[in-house]
Amino acid sequence: MYKIYPEKRYNETLKLLHKFASTEDKILDLGVKNPFSDVMEENGYTIINTSGEDLDYHYHNLKNNDVTFVTALEILEHLVNPMEVLRNLPGDKLLATIPMRLWFAPAYRNKNDPRDVHYHEFEDWQFDMLLEKAGWKIIHRHKWTHPTNKIGIRPFLRKITPRYYAVYAERNKDFEFK
């Protein structure tokens, strides 16, 4: 068994990582080192993070990483063009999580930091299409809600409406880009 973390999304993501990744896998975690990178390392995984470069422009550098597994944990929604990142990932295994589009809330935007925005908040079928079009075969899907202790209509809707979507996919060896 593994340690239980205070954030539900850490626990849900870690369960999926344990299910699909081996501690023998060398993992490229898209994005700079973050608290969940530490969680993965605490659980015996070998992690390499990207260095903060804008992946919309520098996606071609991703293939230079010698890894077997990639995690894209709540980063793809921050990219204008996640397709090129997905097409250029190294390795053959991918665990990706995204915040889902909610009909009752606008897309996330940090007005104090123009880089901290969601260009995309996908519905599950849209994200599936993106992955498949980028040459990935979806093996497993998982959704969960965002817990909140607030009172009100939106907090209630957040308790019953899935907010996070995770997909484990493997590179589709038969896929041809047209």
From TrEMBL:
Listed GO MF terms: methyltransferase activity
Highest taxon of source: Bacteria
One record GO biological process: methylation
This protein's record includes keyword Transferase: yes
Keyword entries, A-Z: Methyltransferase, Transferase
Annotated protein name in UniProt: Methyltransferase
Organism: Faecalibacter bovis
